[in-house]
Write a structure and sequence with these properties.
This protein has 110 residues and is mostly helical. It has helices spanning 5-24, 31-54, 61-68, 71-84, 89-109. The protein is flat and about 45 Å long. It starts with a helix and ends with a helix. The relative contact order is 0.16.
């Protein structure tokens, strides 16, 4: 069985997502580490959303819009993080939901 390059990329992103999620919630860690992994998770969610939305055919506009809507979770997570000014579990979960939404959308919408 041969995997497509896009599917292989998604496997790498999911693995990166798992590692990033672990370090975002690692207790008693350095705040700088939490910040770095939070922004890495935001970058992963943007990457997954971009790949998901651009891999769909142009004639499927509702699916493309639904794919881009996944970034709303990350946007709210960033706003929550900026308002609190420190590590916040709600912001971390929202960014994780954005990545999960993008990965699920790739397999369900595509």
């Amino acid at each position: 069985m041969v995997f497509s390059p896009l599917f292989t990329l998604y496997i790498v992103i999911v693995f990166s997502f798992l590692v990033t999620s672990f370090f975002m919630f690692k207790p008693k860690g350095n705040e700088t580490v939490h910040i770095i992994f939070f922004w890495l998770a935001v970058a992963l969610s943007c990457l997954v959303t971009f790949i998901n939305a651009t891999s769909l055919p142009l004639d499927e506009a509702p699916k493309i819009i639904a794919a881009w809507c996944g970034l709303l979770f990350s946007a709210v997570g960033i706003i929550v993080r900026m308002i609190t000014g420190k590590t916040n579990a709600i912001a971390n979960v929202l960014v994780m939901l954005s990545t999960i939404y993008g990965c699920a959308g790739y397999f369900l919408l595509g």
